[in-house]
Amino acid sequence: MKRLLLLAFLTSLALSTAQAQTAAPVAAPDASKPAQLVEASCGQCKFGLPGKGCDLAVRVNGQAYFVDGTGIDSHGDAHAQDGFCNAVRQARVQGDVVDNRFRATYFQLVPEPGKAK
Cys-Cys crosslink for 39: which of 59, 80, 110, 116, Cβ 3.0 to 4.6 Å? Predict the structure, then answer.
């Protein structure tokens, strides 16, 4: 029984790790499509979306959506002072809302005023 529980735990851990690793979107925007300026942050910590853990979300026209195509830790430490779990940042994005999720094809954080990159 202990082995079965251990196996179930390890399988769950492996699946959650694989799911958390998302491919980064393309480095350059598609010139044929408009980019939009959105708010980006942790969906659970800052936008009040349901879920366990911390996941990247954007707010488009007042509506928050979880993001596919890039992850919360792909843009720095989410739990840093200026990280997504502690701050709402601006991002320039391209993508579409599909099945109530934002599928990003381009995602670039806007530098904060007064901060060198």
Answer: 59
pTM of the shown model: 0.74
78 inside domain = yes
Cα-based distances in Å from 51 to 7, 45, 93, 112, 114: 24, 10, 23, 28, 34
Q: Looking at the predicted structure, is the pLDDT value of residue 114 above 90?
A: no
Count how many domains the chain has: 1
Q: Please report whether residue 116 resides in a domain.
A: no
Per the structure, the complete domain to which residue 39 belongs is given by 2-109
CA distance 40 to 84: 7
Across the range 35-49, mean pLDDT stands at 96
Q: List the structure tokens of 4.
A: 């079965």
CB 45 within 8 A of CB 84: yes
Asked whether residue 28 is domain-assigned, the answer is yes
Contact in structure between 46 and 85 (CB atoms under 8 Å): yes
